[in-house]
Amino acid sequence: MSVADESWRRPSFRQSVVNKINDCIQSTGLISSRNGQEMESHVFQRAQNKDEYLGFVARLILHIREIGQKQNVQKNSYDSEEEWVDR
Predict the structure, then answer these.
(1) In terms of Cα–Cα distance, which of 35, 39, 50, 37 is closest to 2?
(2) Cα torsion through 11, 13, 15, 16, rounded to 10
(3) pLDDT value at position 23?
(4) Mean pLDDT by 10-residue block, N- to C-terminus, for the chain (87 residues)?
């Protein structure tokens, strides 16, 4: 196994992933009991190699976006109902 294969284990690489996860959480407005650091740590512990790690991270980010979209749809629906009731 070459050194390049282990680059995903470096703190700097992992921190960049944490930053991406946190950015995603922030952009969706999602309120979560776990932060990006905790989520990344969980993914890192489960991954056996770089490809698996990146796959887990990609699925995690997609999941966060989906939940954020569902929350926004529910919020917008509630706001519309509230606006209609106020008339």
Answers:
(1) 50
(2) 170
(3) 95
(4) 76 98 91 89 97 97 92 66 53
Residue with tokens 């706001």: 79
Rounded-to-integer distance, Cα 53 and Cα 51, Å? 5
In this predicted structure, what is the pLDDT of residue 40?
97
Burial class from Cβ neighbours inside 10 Å (0-12, 13-18, 19+) for residue 48 reads exposed
What pLDDT shows up at residue 76? 66
Three-state helix/strand/coil letters over 63-87: HHHHHHHHHHHHHHHHHHHHHHHHC
DSSP one-letter string for 3-65: GGGGGGGSHHHHHHHHHHHHHHHHHHT---SS-HHHHHHHHHHH-SSHHHHHHHHHHHHHHHH
